[in-house]
Design brief:
The structure is a single chain. Strand 3, helix 4 and strand 4 form a beta-alpha-beta unit. A five-stranded parallel sheet has the order 2-3-4-1-5, with helices on both faces. Helix 1 runs antiparallel to helix 8, helix 6 runs parallel beside helix 8 and helix 8 crosses helix 9. It folds into two domains: 123 residues, no CATH class; 120 residues, Rossmann fold, CATH 3.40.50.300. The longest helix has 18 residues. The chain is 39% helix and 9% strand. The chain is of the alpha/beta class and 264 residues long. The radius of gyration is 21 Å and the shape is elongated.
């Protein structure tokens, strides 16, 4: 392999762009209209709390960060919240309550926010009723909140998202290639993000433009796993679905260096 090709592979594999949450980059669609309406009408929030939930990549974090920016809200990750937080602002964003690590700390934070008359926006991949929360008081507080789902993305939104993701990486996708990806990949934003990231890395490593041949290689990597009865997997929660780390969109980018040659 030439020195230039080796360098391209080394540059292509380790890096990924940081998330950007600019309002201008959010794609409005019918699937997120209820969430946008709720964020624009905070007086409708039950007990000054709103929970946005939906699949990975549906736009809940993007919307939540836009709201946080306009409100000057503090941002807390439930996965890192181990001690109660006393809000210093009039708005608080708590992300990913479905992977909270300290329910008592989350409950205390909500209580302090309520006492301070602080509005709280929370995000989750599942609605409160489907979260396995043993702390009854916390479960009660979450269920006594306005809960809005961001619906599965419609075709027009997925097409626009695919183009935006490709543009961000300076990738040119032909219309046939775009249609090929949209018609064969699982129709979820998180999967499209992963597909474009891998397509970019493969194309850079090969020193070529994105092609259908590369896209075909991605299909097997990103296809949905076969359905399985909950009883066949003792570690799967039948109520909440697959464990978060087992969902295809949550798996880390793999190093496919040895597979690149099969595309040459």
């Amino acid at each position: 392999m030439s020195e230039a090709a080796t360098e391209a592979r080394q540059l292509a594999l380790p890096f990924d762009e940081p998330d950007q949450f600019a309002a201008a980059d959010f794609i409005e669609a019918a699937s997120n209209s209820a969430a946008r309406a709720a964020l624009a009408a905070p007086d409708t929030w039950v007990n000054a709390r709103l929970i946005l939930w939906g699949d990975a990549g549906c736009g809940k974090t993007h919307l939540a960060r836009i709201w946080a920016g306009t409100q000057g809200a503090e941002i807390v990750a439930a996965s890192r919240l181990r001690a109660p937080v006393s809000p210093q602002a009039t708005a608080l964003l708590i992300e990913d309550i479905d992977i909270m690590v300290a329910p008592v700390a989350l409950l205390a934070t909500l209580e302090r926010a309520s006492a301070a008359r602080c509005r709280v926006l929370l995000t989750s991949r599942s609605p409160p009723a489907r979260l396995a929360i043993e702390l009854a008081d916390l479960a009660s507080r979450l269920r006594a909140s306005l809960t809005i789902q961001i619906e599965p993305a419609e075709p027009a939104l997925l097409d626009a998202l695919l183009m935006r993701l490709a543009s961000a990486r300076q990738l040119t996708l032909t219309a046939p290639l775009r249609q090929f990806l949209l018609s064969r990949l699982p129709r979820r934003p998180a999967v499209l993000r992963e597909a474009i990231a891998r397509l970019d890395r493969y194309a850079m490593a090969l020193g070529t433009a994105p092609s259908r041949r590369i896209a075909e290689r991605l299909l097997g990597e990103l296809a949905d796993p076969p359905e399985c009865d909950p009883e066949c997997d003792p570690e799967r929660d039948p109520e909440s679905g697959p464990r978060r780390q087992d969902r295809p969109q949550d798996r880390p980018m793999e190093n496919h260096e040895t597979d690149i040659r099969s595309l040459l």
